[in-house]
């Protein structure tokens, strides 16, 4: 099936870390990198990793003269190991044989990773090895392997090792290796029955347990009897050594099915007992595959996006949807987890949760809103910590952490290693207070798409009000300007964390932050009107919000300061930006290309990126990404600034020339904001964003985990950016600007309880109201509003 597979037809060891990340299989509960079954972790090629949604642990390390604590998404026991050897010889390994053919396929339609290789070993024996793997979407506790060995020119005995390896550490990211990475302590291992072994481990600090039970079935000819098995174990490791006879030309089939339980699971007694009990109830690989493939089919029915473009764009977009659904799925519901920026695919950023949700939720909102709701609950449950953080910093309300993990404490690292210079440096990016605005924005977007009043009346409203309260208390009135200001923050552009030569950290009046603060406060004021008075009173009482507070909100909503570059309509990224030096872009772009980590490069050269008009990623431009020009102009008008839609292109142009795209999120925003004014450049940016991970454009970051924000962001660019899909004033608006490269686009969305199919070409839009369970819905096409009811289909000519 074209467009559904990622295929590698050559073995390239140097690419293996990237392939492992891209071939990760997951189900929203657990995920395992696409490492080979016979591989164990080494310095640079193989890194098996199994990660659990919400599976965190903290460790302390002495580094650069400081004691620092880091919370990591733990690399749990490796359930993959399955390998063989000829008696007295080394275990099979790709590096020890001559590969005659190689093919690895990721089948996104079924969620299966497959490898088919033919090889010759040192003794001249030729064999075929065919492996398939799944991480069940149908039963989140089950993962399975089918392994088939066909001797082509030899016969004789072999020994198979089927193991569970809990001696894993977190060592997948080279620049973290100086930090303590031993999170697991072994609890138990052994044999459950003739075919099944088990292992149980616990995290050393968070006390989370995981048990795995692995059943290995060998398919032998009926008259050959059961193969002989020997148990081998040490603390944290258990294996069965199975002796089998192979016959030339006959395929030996082995299936390894593993049951996984953790102490965070619902409806269990104890992890090991559950794993041992439930493994006995599992069927064969093909039975599991059937159920698993059906679960994927159901997901694809809702989530696929078909475009007539080049094959690459289609399959890469599917890969992005695939990895998003592997990170969060129906299996995530009830787990109390957030969505890690790097998926469950590697150890970069330690599995922390950032503002990347902003780029991820729009896809879920319009298809699986139950998931957005669930992920917003993760934030809601951490309000206590956010309220404490605000109070510690001298504010009120909820101040969410820039990096979040288990309990909502700030998890940003205190110091970080610049791999380019080898120096450990202070990391002040935690001052990105705009994260709290992103959470409020996500609450509001979810509500807009689903009109979930129950949510909004309770958790949603509580978060909106408390975040508004935070923004109001971090804003300080400047009597000279007669305006409110926000000081000592960092904007989305993480390069700028202080003023050159200043002892203070943070910047003043980051335009993005200030506008977002105003938007949050204005929206909270609107919400007071929407919710019934008694509920508003209840919430205000609970949150200690007074009438005086609301009066202050109203004042800030019309008097926030927004910096502009002198005598221009260019919004200044922050106050003082205009005084920074211009950066010699050409010189560096020739050397490092279009996307680069200037902060690291300059620090290693003894310079400091803070000195320059050089951004890591979209900062001011985020405003044009999140708001329509109408909305933004309205915000500026309320603030009494003369900012017009005509000023937007000059702002885009200005920052476009001063951005190094050191984050994969940057190109998404740049493509989006150009979608209407410059389709060629928009498409170029889209293409770069599209290959961020498949081609690892940041040079070595994808092997450490995919960039979920960029993945979901590219899909959202197609679904909302290029179609002009926007929810405004209770109308779902469509105003397409399809790039020339896309001829035709088909997808489904769920909007306010209706499933709607959309078919777009350059000439027409066809809207079909498939299924739904609520009243009619208003859809606006090119400025005119139409009422749609279930079963209706209409076509609009958009060729003029
Ligand atoms: C970006 C942030 C992003 C984080 C996680 C950083 O490189 O600058 O905006 O949230 O990566 O994806």
UniProtKB/TrEMBL annotation:
Q: Where is the Glycoside hydrolase family 65 N-terminal domain?
A: 8-264
Q: Which Pfam families match?
A: Glyco_hydro_65C, Glyco_hydro_65m, Glyco_hydro_65N
Please list the residue ranges annotated as the Glycoside hydrolase family 65 C-terminal domain.
725-787
Q: Where is the active site?
A: 494
Alphabetized GO MF terms = carbohydrate binding; glycosyltransferase activity; hydrolase activity, hydrolyzing O-glycosyl compounds
A single GO BP = carbohydrate metabolic process
Q: Give the Glycoside hydrolase family 65 central catalytic domain ranges.
A: 318-715
Task: Point out the coiled-coil segments of this chain.
Answer: none
Task: Tell me the InterPro entries matching this sequence.
Answer: 6-hairpin_glycosidase_sf (IPR008928), 6hp_glycosidase-like_sf (IPR012341), Gal_mutarotase_sf_dom (IPR011013), GH65_N (IPR037018), Glyco_hydro_65_C (IPR005194), Glyco_hydro_65_M (IPR005195), Glyco_hydro_65_N (IPR005196), Malt_Pase/Glycosyl_Hdrlase (IPR017045)
Summarize where substrate binds, as residue positions: 355-356, 616-617
Q: Which UniProt keywords apply?
A: Glycosyltransferase, Hydrolase, Transferase
| Similarity-based family | Belongs to the glycosyl hydrolase 65 family.
Question: What name appears for this protein in its UniProt entry?
Answer: Glycoside hydrolase family 65 protein
Q: Specify the species.
A: Pontibacter oryzae
């Amino acid at each position: 099936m074209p467009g559904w597979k990622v295929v590698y037809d050559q073995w390239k060891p140097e690419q293996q870390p990237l392939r492992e990340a891209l071939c990760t299989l997951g189900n929203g509960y657990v995920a395992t990198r696409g490492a080979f079954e016979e591989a164990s972790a080494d310095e640079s090629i193989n890194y098996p990793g199994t990660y659990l949604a919400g599976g965190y642990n903290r460790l302390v390390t002495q580094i650069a003269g400081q004691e620092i604590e880091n919370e990591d998404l733990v690399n749990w026991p490796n359930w993959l190991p399955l390998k063989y050897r000829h008696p007295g010889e080394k275990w099979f390994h790709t590096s020890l044989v001559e590969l005659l053919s190689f093919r690895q396929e990721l089948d996104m339609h079924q969620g299966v990773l497959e490898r088919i290789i033919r090889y010759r070993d040192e003794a001249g024996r030729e064999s075929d090895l065919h492996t398939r793997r799944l991480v069940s979407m149908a039963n989140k506790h089950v993962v399975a392997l089918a392994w088939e060995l066909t001797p082509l020119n030899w016969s004789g005995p072999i020994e198979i090792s089927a193991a569970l390896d809990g001696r894993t550490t977190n060592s997948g990211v080279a620049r973290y290796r100086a930090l303590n990475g031993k999170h697991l302590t072994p609890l138990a291992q052994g044999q459950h029955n003739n075919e099944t072994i088990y292992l149980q481990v616990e995290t050393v600090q968070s006390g989370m347990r995981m048990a795995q039970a692995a059943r290995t079935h060998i398919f032998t000819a009926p008259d050959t009897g059961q193969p002989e098995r020997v148990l081998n174990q040490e603390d944290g490791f258990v294996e069965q050594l199975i002796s089998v006879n192979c016959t030339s030309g006959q395929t030996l089939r082995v299936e390894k099915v593993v049951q996984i339980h953790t102490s965070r699971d619902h409806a269990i007694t104890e992890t090991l007992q559950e794993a041992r009990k439930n493994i006995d109830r599992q069927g064969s690989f093909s039975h599991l595959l059937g159920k698993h493939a059906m679960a994927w089919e159901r997901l694809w029915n809702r989530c696929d996006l078909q475009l007539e473009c080049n094959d690459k764009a289609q399959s890469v977009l599917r890969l992005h949807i695939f990895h998003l659904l592997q990170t969060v799925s129906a299996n995530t519901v009830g787990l109390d987890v957030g969505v890690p920026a790097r998926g469950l695919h590697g150890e970069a950023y330690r599995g922390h949760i950032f503002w990347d949700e902003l780029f991820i939720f729009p896809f879920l909102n319009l298809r699986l809103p139950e998931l957005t709701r669930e992920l917003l609950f993760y934030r809601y449950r951490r309000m206590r910590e956010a309220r404490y953080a605000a109070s510690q910093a001298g504010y009120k309300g909820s101040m969410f952490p820039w990096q979040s993990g288990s309990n909502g404490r700030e998890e940003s690292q205190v110091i970080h290693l610049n791999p380019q210079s080898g120096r450990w440096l202070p990391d002040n990016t935690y001052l990105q207070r705009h994260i709290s605005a992103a959470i409020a924005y996500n609450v509001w977007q979810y509500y807009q798409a689903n009109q979930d009043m129950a949510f909004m009346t309770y958790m949603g409203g509580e978060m909106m009000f408390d975040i508004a309260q935070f923004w109001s208390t971090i804003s300080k009135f400047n009597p000279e300007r007669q305006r409110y200001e926000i000081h000592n923050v960092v904007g989305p552009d993480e390069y700028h964390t202080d003023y050159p030569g200043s002892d203070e950290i943070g910047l003043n009046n980051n335009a993005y932050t200030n506008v977002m603060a105003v938007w949050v406060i204005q929206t909270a004021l609107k919400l007071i009107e929407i919710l019934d008075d008694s509920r508003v009173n209840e919430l205000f009482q609970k949150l200690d919000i007074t009438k005086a507070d609301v009066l202050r909100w109203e004042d800030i909503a019309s008097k926030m300061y927004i910096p502009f570059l002198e005598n221009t309509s260019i919004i200044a990224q922050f106050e003082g930006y205009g005084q920074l030096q211009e950066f010699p872009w050409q010189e560096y772009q020739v050397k490092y290309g279009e996307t680069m980590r200037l902060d690291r490069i300059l620090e290693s050269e003894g310079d400091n990126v803070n000195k320059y008009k050089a951004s890591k990623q979209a900062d001011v431009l985020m405003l044009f990404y999140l708001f329509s020009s109408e909305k933004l102009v309205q915000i500026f008008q309320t603030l009494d600034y003369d900012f017009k839609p005509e000023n937007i292109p000059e702002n885009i142009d200005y920052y476009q020339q001063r951005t190094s795209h050191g984050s994969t999120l940057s190109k998404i925003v740049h493509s989006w904001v150009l979608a209407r004014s410059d389709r060629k450049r928009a498409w170029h940016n889209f293409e770069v964003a599209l290959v961020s991970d498949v081609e690892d454009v940041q040079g070595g970051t994808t092997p450490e985990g995919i960039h979920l924000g960029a993945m979901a962001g590219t899909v959202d660019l197609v679904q909302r950016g290029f179609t002009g899909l926007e929810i405004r004033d209770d109308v779902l608006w469509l105003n397409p600007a399809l790039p020339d490269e896309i001829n035709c686009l088909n997808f489904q969305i769920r909007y306010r309880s209706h499933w709607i199919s959309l078919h777009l070409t350059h000439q027409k839009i066809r809207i079909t109201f498939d299924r739904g369970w609520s009243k009619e819905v208003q859809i606006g096409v090119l400025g005119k509003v139409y009422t749609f009811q279930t079963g209706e289909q209409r076509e609009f000519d958009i060729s003029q």
